[in-house]
Amino acid sequence: MIARAAVLFIPILLLLVVSDARAARTQPPDTPSPPAEQTAPADAAQPGAGGWDFPDENEAAPTLGQIVAPQAVDLVLFPAFLTLALVSFFRKSVGLKYITLGAALIYLGVARSQMISVVNIFGLLSWNLPIFRYSLFWYLFAGFTLVSTILWGRLYCGRICAFGALTQLMDRVVPARLRYDVPLRVETRVAYIKYAVLAAVVVYYLATRDITIYRYVEPFWMFSGQGSTVMWVGLGTLLLATVFVRNLYCRFLCPVGAFLGVVSKATTVFSIKRWAECKTCRICEKTCEWGAIQGPRIVKSECVRCDDCERLYMDQQKCVHWVVIRRKSEIMARRSAAPAGPAGL
Fold this sequence. Notes:
Blueprint: H1 2-26, H2 36-39, H3 64-68, H4 72-91, H5 94-111, H6 118-126, H7 136-152, H8 155-160, H9 162-173, H10 184-190, H11 193-208, H12 229-244, H13 248-252, H14 255-267, H15 283-287, E1 293-294, E2 297-298, H16 308-313, H17 320-337
Antiparallel strand pairs: 1-2
Helix pairs in contact: 1-4, 1-5, 4-5, 5-9, 7-14, 11-14
């Protein structure tokens, strides 16, 4: 099944890359528009014989085809990607999860350089949002992020974000002996840094209306390849640190993760189930790579629905809940099979 999913999805990704390459070859380089006084003819300010010749304000509205055509590729590919992400989530498949992460990295990262950013939070605060009909892909992307966060928590962070996909794929190939596991008591405190970063950039934006601060608190610009020397050095340092501390940026520094964490804590509809034995068992807590399990409690603001604990939850060989049930059944079976004593005794 995993192989079939990969075979079906790879051609779609190749189609996107080819279409983007063709667009890049045919599109002329961007040039700044010359000032109006340089482009207007000499007699532009002179009225004609019939008076001032202003352009007609009643221009024809674009047709649905004209609106959809430039966005058609993304309107096909993104729902296909979301389908893959949701199938991997509901099936709790490790293989499909990593196929999804690879697709997120290639499609949303390398090909589209599209992620939820603090810039979007700034736009929400000032209600300065893209024009809907020309930004259908963006509204589909942002809408899915918000709705999925309300329903399941930070699913975007664990499945959709291209930078998060990169760090999770790094963690998959980095030898375990190189990792440093942050103690839980330290992690619970350090995790608040991202909330401080979110508060700081929001206050800065409200005071200055300067959105360029995003380049210094988010590494997402790396997919566009546009950054200063200082920014590239900082990114290299961050990725090197991520080799030793898994998902470092996502867990401790990401302001978008902090924002979605606040939404998750307040609204998650479908939380992860817990057994009564979770009060004393620590298997899931030790397995969680995100520090999102503290004893029997799931920390909704930190959980990215990575599936690790949910797979353990249903593993009848490892989960204590199922082990206890199996042992009780075995005891009852032995008692039922025991021969009855002589009659009258």
